[in-house]
Amino acid sequence: EAQVTQNPRYLITVTGKKLTVTCSQNMNHEYMSWYRQDPGLGLRQIYYSMNVEVTDKGDVPEGYKVSRKEKRNFPLILESPSPNQTSLYFCASSPQGYYGYTFGSGTRLTVV
Amino acid sequence: KNQVEQSPQSLIILEGKNCTLQCNYTVSPFSNLRWYKQDTGRGPVSLTIMTFSENTKSNGRYTATLDADTKQSSLHITASQLSDSASYICVVSGPPGNTPLVFGKGTRLSVIA
After folding, report:
1. Which of B41, B100, B104 sits opposite A45 (nearest CB)?
2. Rounded-to-integer distance, Cα B35 and Cα B71, Å
């Protein structure tokens, strides 16, 4: 089944403790992206990747890192999480960045 | 500035009734417009996608329209069901290598019995 898999689905952590949210897609898509979704603000892009070893900042990249060493994986790294990064996070992939996105099921992160 | 505005912000309708959601955009150049359905706490799922030359596209009880001249789109839901309760998000994209996706903030639809 074609899908984008995120893990974990839920995560509670403490301020400053590094964490990684994984994202994997099995559709051989070039384009992958991370979004956060907060009440009243809609989906905002954090980082995106056009292909392996190619990443770029989205609208709200501060406090996040990503890597794209393989085509299928696009992990989101929070080196020193803060409470303002408490949010619902989505990973998405697309064969090309402007067409046909598939979203993961989301990761609800709480930083206390 | 590239923007996507959706209205209304929220809507409550009775089961079986029809409704129409609106999306206005200023994204230019334009490549395509998508409507997504997002259940609470879940990832958005694509309903329709339309390019510049398409002005109507249907997916079951969902019908999307696009007027590229006025930069407006609508999503019409026919004979609503309780399972239609969700947020509906309009997303506009420019051509490859151009503007990344621009998301609307969504319309929260509640269908009640």
Report:
1. B100
2. 14
